[in-house]
Amino acid sequence: VSVERAEALALDAADPLASFRDAFVITDPQRIYADGNSLGRLPRAVAAVITDAMHEWGDRIVEAWDGWIDLPTRVGDRLAAVCLGAQPDEVVACDSTTVNLYKLVHAACDLREGAIVTDRANFPTDRYVLEGLAGSRGRRLVLADSVADALAVPDAAVVCLSHVDYRSGEALDMAALTRTTEALVVWDLSHSVGAIEIDCSTIDLAVGCSYKYLNAGPGGPAFLFVRRALADAMRSPIQGWFGQHEQFAMGPRYDPLPGAARFLAGSPPVLGLLALDASLDLLADAGMPQIARKGRALTSLAATLADDWLAPLGFTLATPRDPAARGSHVALRHADAWPICRALIERANVVPDFRRPDIVRLGFPPLYTRFADVWDAMDRLRGLVAAGEHHHVDPRARRVT
Amino acid sequence: VSVERAEALALDAADPLASFRDAFVITDPQRIYADGNSLGRLPRAVAAVITDAMHEWGDRIVEAWDGWIDLPTRVGDRLAAVCLGAQPDEVVACDSTTVNLYKLVHAACDLREGAIVTDRANFPTDRYVLEGLAGSRGRRLVLADSVADALAVPDAAVVCLSHVDYRSGEALDMAALTRTTEALVVWDLSHSVGAIEIDCSTIDLAVGCSYKYLNAGPGGPAFLFVRRALADAMRSPIQGWFGQHEQFAMGPRYDPLPGAARFLAGSPPVLGLLALDASLDLLADAGMPQIARKGRALTSLAATLADDWLAPLGFTLATPRDPAARGSHVALRHADAWPICRALIERANVVPDFRRPDIVRLGFPPLYTRFADVWDAMDRLRGLVAAGEHHHVDPRARRVT
After folding, report:
1. Which residues contact B13 (CB under 8 A, 6 or more apart)?
2. Chain B: nearest CA to A2, how far in angstroms?
3. DSSP code at position A263
4. What number of C-beta contacts closer than 8 Å exist between A and B?
5. Among candidates A47, A99, A241 on the partner chain, residue whose Cβ is nearest the Cβ of B128
């Protein structure tokens, strides 16, 4: 016998973060949502803050949202303190991860001669952005076979790596890897921020999104981190008026703000920033060390059950077994991964996601996932595959992306 | 005697768009909101669609908002049809105006050798973006003294111009001016879109925002237009996965979509795009020809009253007197413009905005501005300045931006 359900319930009873689940809107208590690593659940406080912001818009119009103009830096500073181990003026919340990566890598190329490097397994938008920049900046693009190979490229100017791999869930040691190279390393924190602890004091540059573990909503504002000592030597390629010193003087020449704020471009997405700010209250209350600790326990339970129950059914755990070496999702390889994902959604009320070619990805955001949810998800997955139910899904169903 | 208030009321009674005012949230019927050219009012339908979208997020989470992935092109196509006189696949709604201008001018530089040009009076973020691109692309930057001078620069690669000047309200003849140069002209439509008719079939490239006359909310998604025949020869500098052919194949190399969609970068701001889509329903129902016609009538009334009432008080109309040569706002120059703006807000319940150094700017969005509002705003302005009330505002008050 493997872990009993009673043991999962006991872990929930002892969980200091258990009450945070009530801070989220949950309309179907039977559904196990294991895709918060794609889109986080809606915090009740975010729903409330958006409702208030809409009322303000209706009532006060252009005079609404006192201090809205400083939201990108103010929310950036909060994100720095709550989730990133960064200092004031080092983080701004703005644009998309893609645009922010573009800005930082472009600016990093001004500081270093040489190649633009990433690993082949990195997230597609990161690879495409780097490919474009290599072309426009006249740099060699290296798509290395591994992270180690990427860091060993001798003439690298910039190396872009993901802190947590979006497929396997593997977490890299940012501090140690950053030290191994003279290149500037730009870290993509999209799959780690809000899930595990991050210490930006050990790195130079980073970007990330807010709609996964930060629960700021679909297409919510992304962020970027620039180490304070580097910022003033860097120039954003996109010189917008929100990065301008004394913006409303509307002066004749661009004179960038100090710190990360110089990477701001256009008008901030006010509703998205207010949502992120409200969501950060939850993360601040829970504390990243507690969140990360619970995440490791949740994924450890999943790993144990995968070994005990799923390995005999043809699954392989693609996520590192060392809890310190992973984020808050697990990847299960199976030749029938796609129909299994469909069947989980259609027949088992579990929401995973599928990653080509053969990964069932299960995310367990610590703020609203119970140990019993992990147990039940794995149990339903086991039952479904053992019964062969995934052979009966409609192949014309909308593809799980 | 000038125009009587009864005449304004008669114009309202005959106004075919009068009923559209009820489609907006208006909490203080006595307040005259003359700053919809900064931030448009909240349409009731937008409030409803955001409420629904939040419920969907809470309930369906990652499965919410069917077709969300196509929102940037779908809403772009609608905007093209309703407001821009553009064809399908020529417009996408995404990012900020600043980022979109950067992308288009960068891409235009691939097609043309020579200088990057604008006029000194152009909106600050446009000038700063161009200054940055001139530096990074190794082009000469020309800040011409006038639009005519900008178009006469002999080695221009790209000329960036505003369709409607954000200060004076002057509207340029885009078709005629685009024909005068071999350079690619990029038009900033921020102060014209949704206010006056636009025919993109006569131009090559354009950008604009949605939070002014399009009423899509603070920091709502911007848009860009690329003439279909040009698009496939252009490359976005920011090669994001939303511009990628078969995005979720996550293939190894960037292979851009056809049309304007290749200029998409990161994840779309779903709530903002749904808001824009809902707001476009109103513009589509009213029709841009009707909207523009009413706008010309509103600004004509303001111009007449400015001449009759305000000129004796030291005001000069800075907006063209030809109705076809302006947008939907008027600019009144006065040496005391700043305290006058403060006094209007504090003592007269009129919301204008101030533009340095000496402009009181009054915007009259046709969908929710009545002729009586224009009459009352001008009347309150006259009374306030005649009584010298602007000499009593607190100089420490928050600056009107």
Report:
1. none
2. 31
3. G
4. 245
5. A241
Instruction: Report which residue type is found at B15.
Output: D
Q: Taking residues A109-128, what's their average pLDDT?
A: 96
Mutation site, B24, B165, B235, B267, interface A, largest A CB count within 10 A: B267
Per-residue pLDDT tens for B346-384?
Answer: 999 999 999 999 999 999 999 999 999 999 999 999 999
The set of residues, in sequence order, having a beta carbon less than 8 Å from that of B363 and lying 6+ positions away, is B34, B35, B36, B37, B38, B212, B328, B329, B353
Is B354 a residue of the active site? no
Tell me the chain A residues in contact with residue B243 when contact means C-beta distances shorter than 8 Å: 128
Give the mean model confidence (pLDDT) for residues A278-296. 98
| B361 in active site | yes
CA–CA separation, B186 and B190 (whole Å): 12
Radius of gyration in angstroms for the set of CA atoms belonging to chain B, rounded to a whole number? 22
CA nearest to B238 within chain A = A129
Q: List chain A residues with CB under 8 Å of B245.
A: none
**CA–CA dist B119, B165 (Å, integer):** 11
Can you tell me whether residue A186 is helix, strand or coil? strand
- Name residues 274-333 of chain B within 8 A of A (Cβ): none
Mean pLDDT, chain A, whole residue set:
96
pLDDT at B400 over 80: no
- B211 contacts A265 by C-beta, under 8 angstroms: no
Distance of CA B102 to the CA centre of its chain: 17
Beta carbons of A131 and B239 less than 8 Å apart? yes
Instruction: Say how far apart CA B42 and CA A270 lie, in whole Å.
Output: 14
Token digits of residue B179: 């024909």
Residues linked to residue A93 through DSSP beta bridges, in sequence order? A223
Q: Which two tokens stand for residue A275?
A: 């949502």
pLDDT band at A394 (very low <50, low <70, confident <90, very high): confident
CA-to-CA distance for A197 and A195, rounded, in angstroms?
A: 7
**What pLDDT does residue B248 have?**
85
| pLDDT for residue A249 | 85
Residue whose C-alpha is closest to residue B133's, from B143, B125, B141:
B141
Is pLDDT of A39 > 80? yes
Strand pairing of A91-93 and A223-226? antiparallel
Question: CB neighbours (10 Å) of residue A22?
Answer: 9
Hey, of B30, B125, B276, which one would you mutate to test binding to chain A, going by the most A CBs within 10 A of its CB? Answer: B125
- Per-residue pLDDT of B193-217, as tens digits, reads 999 999 999 999 999 999 999 999 9
Contact assignment for B218 to A271 by CB distance below 8 Å: yes
> Any idea how long chain B is?
401
Place of tokens 């992990």: A374
Distance (Å, whole) CA A164 – CA A157: 22
Which residues 185-214 on chain B approach chain A with CB closer than 8 angstroms?
Answer: 209, 211
Q: What is the dihedral of CA B101, B107, B109, B112, to 10 degrees?
A: -120
Mean pLDDT of A152-173: 98
Cα B143–chain centre separation: 22
- pLDDT of B14-60, one tens digit each? 999 999 999 999 999 999 999 999 999 999 999 999 999 999 999 99
Contact B128 A96 (CB under 8 A): no
CA distances B216 to A245, A247, A393, B6, B210, Å, are 28, 23, 40, 33, 5
* A123 part of the active site: yes
Please provide the DSSP assignment of B367-386 as one string.
TT--HHHHHHHHHHHHHHHH
A211 is catalytic: yes
Separation in Å, CA A396 to CA A338, A342, B248: 12, 11, 17
Q: Which amino acid is at B278?
A: A
Please pick, among B296, B326, B355, B361, the residue that the annotation labels catalytic: B361
Alpha carbons B207 and B226: distance in angstroms, whole number: 9
The shortest C-alpha distance from B2 to chain A (Å) reads: 31
